[in-house]
Write a structure and sequence with these properties.
alpha+beta, Endonuclease, Chain A, eight-stranded mixed sheet, about 375 residues
Length: about 375
């Protein structure tokens, strides 16, 4: 099948962005906006697990519905396996519209592998949040000393209706509506101004996120800074990073270090270090906690969202990112990376080359598992 090379949404120009780092920052901001909602709250997440954090969101979603706000919650069915029945009942009893994406069916496993991995919240068509965090206590500094490090972007402006449209498109496919959702109109303006665009992915046949990332890496002149929790990337991305570093571009990558939710993926990522280091790519491992953030900066462009650089996201998952040219938020991303570099350990080539046989064996075993999962994801791609 021929891949779609167009982008689903256009560039939008009248927006403001604020980068929110870690749960104490983005959870409080998200809850505040839900409290202020007047007409609609649309919430989409992969991970939503019972606990103190979920309690806060369930409470505010139910109160919003009680105020007469149109409140819809779209959760991945597999990602809610730790959301108990009582919490689901709280939402439905309050008449919040709750929809679980793609319930797992063991008789149709190929379909069940395809998950909604997006993290999105829109309020009243004018405010939105997008990023990589789930609604679990693991992201919340108030409930965990080892809370996960992550990033969300708060958005106000003309791009928010695109996120609303994107949400409703998935909602209506799962639960057909009586009315159709009109796609926001296109109003192109001066292309020299700051701008942003929503990038969506629905498997290998339409993955705007990977396409945009590869394009920006290849065209970068100054710097490429990247952080990802699961860097099981395509050969195309790794080759582009090495080529950029060889041209003199400042290429720095941050991956999880001693803390990870899937240690075998960390071992699998380390398989790539040798070739990256030999190409003058700087590789760092984040030390304080597990880093779950997914941010890529290329010169004056950056993207934040739900997409991991792994085969599952490339071939199967629904994902959403935002790509941004914006001077103010760009500086916030620069500050984020500089802080994370200072909290990370730089990997040195000659030391890495002399790592133990046990370490290399773990990387080899992880590579076998990753290749097997890559085969599955390609076989059952959307």
């Amino acid at each position: 099948m021929k891949k779609n090379k167009s982008y689903h949404y256009p560039w939008r120009y009248n927006n403001t962005f604020h980068v929110l780092v870690d749960g104490d920052d983005f959870f409080s901001s998200m809850l505040t906006e839900i409290k202020k909602a007047k007409t609609s709250v649309l919430f989409e997440a992969y991970l939503f697990e019972s606990g103190n954090t979920a309690d806060l969101f369930i409470k505010e979603l139910c109160l919003a519905k009680k105020r007469g706000v149109n409140t819809r919650v779209l959760l991945d069915e597999y990602g809610t396996k730790k959301l108990n029945r009582a919490d689901k009942d709280k939402l439905t009893n309050a008449e919040v519209e709750l929809l679980l994406y793609n319930p797992v069916n063991f008789l149709h496993m190929s379909k069940s592998l395809k998950r909604d991995h997006r993290k999105l919240l829109t309020i009243d068509d004018h405010t939105a949040f997008i990023g990589g965090a789930g609604i679990t206590d693991e992201f919340n500094p108030e409930t965990s000393n080892n809370y996960w490090h992550d990033v969300m972007v708060k958005i106000n402006g003309d791009i928010v209706p695109d996120l609303v449209h994107s949400f409703n498109t998935i909602w209506n496919k799962q639960k057909p509506a009586h009315t159709t959702e009109n796609k926001p109109s296109v109003h192109e303006t001066d292309s020299t101004k700051d701008k942003a665009r929503i990038l969506v992915a629905s498997g290998a046949e339409q993955n705007e996120i990977i396409r945009a990332i590869v394009s920006r890496i290849r065209s970068s002149k100054d710097k490429i800074w990247l952080t990802s929790p699961y860097f099981i990337s395509s050969w195309k991305i790794r080759r582009a990073l090495r080529a950029a570093a060889k041209k003199g571009v400042d290429v720095r990558l941050i991956f999880p270090g001693p803390h990870s939710d899937h240690k075998w993926i960390t071992y699998g990522t380390r398989r790539y270090y040798q070739r990256l280091l030999k190409a003058n790519v700087a590789v760092y491992e984040y030390q304080p906690r597990f880093t779950h953030s997914k941010v890529i900066l290329c010169d004056n462009w950056f993207t934040v969202g739900s997409s991991n650089l792994d085969r599952w996201n490339q071939f199967l998952n629904l994902d959403a990112n935002i790509e941004i040219y914006d001077k103010h938020s760009h500086q916030q991303i620069i500050n984020l990376f500089e802080s994370d570099f200072s909290d990370s350990q730089l990997i040195i080539l000659n030391q890495w080359s002399s790592r133990s046989f046990i370490q290399q064996f773990k990387e080899w075993i992880s590579g076998i598992v990753i290749n097997w999962l890559g085969y599955i994801s390609r076989k059952f791609r959307r």
